Amino acid sequence: MKSFRRIYLNLPIIGLLLTCSLAFSKGAPITHQTAKDFKNLIIQGERPEIVACMAATLNEFKRNKTLEAFQWNDSTSKTALMHEKELGGHLTREITLQARAVQSGKSFFDVVSPLQIECKQIDESYPSVTITILP
Question: Across-strand partners of 102?
Fold first, then answer.
């Protein structure tokens, strides 16, 4: 009976400790996850200038028979490099992106290879895409 009374008397202290620990844990920072697919990047409005290049890359990937299982890197929108220049009244935009893909029929196991994607867009026309498999 004595041990039951001790637990009963200590319940308010235990409740107070749990409440304090929950209050402190609520203030912990939340990490931000960056979207991997270009549709979410369009919706979120991150780097709208690279969206045309990302869409053209996906179309090129569908035509490319040497690659499968394409995936954007988590940091695609942050690490994309864009250079704009105007020559002879024409605006040229060159964008470099990073991604990953599995090479078709390369081995029995799926080996993920890093890719470098280069897009060239002249006067807001459809971009031309070059996909390079990095070592």
Answer: 68, 112
- The CA–CA distances, whole Å, from 82 to 31, 48, 73, 74, 118 equal 27, 12, 17, 18, 10
* pTM check: above 0.70: no
Q: Which of 94, 100, 97, 99 is nearest to 127 (CA)?
A: 94
Instruction: Please give the Cα distance from 40 to 54 (Å, whole number).
Output: 12
> Cβ-count burial of 4 within 10 angstroms (0-12 exposed, 13-18 middle, 19+ buried)?
exposed
Query: Which tens digits make up the pLDDT trace of 34-87?
Result: 445 555 655 555 677 788 898 899 999 888 888 888 888 888 888 899 999 998
Token digits of residue 1? 């009976």
Amino acid at 58: L
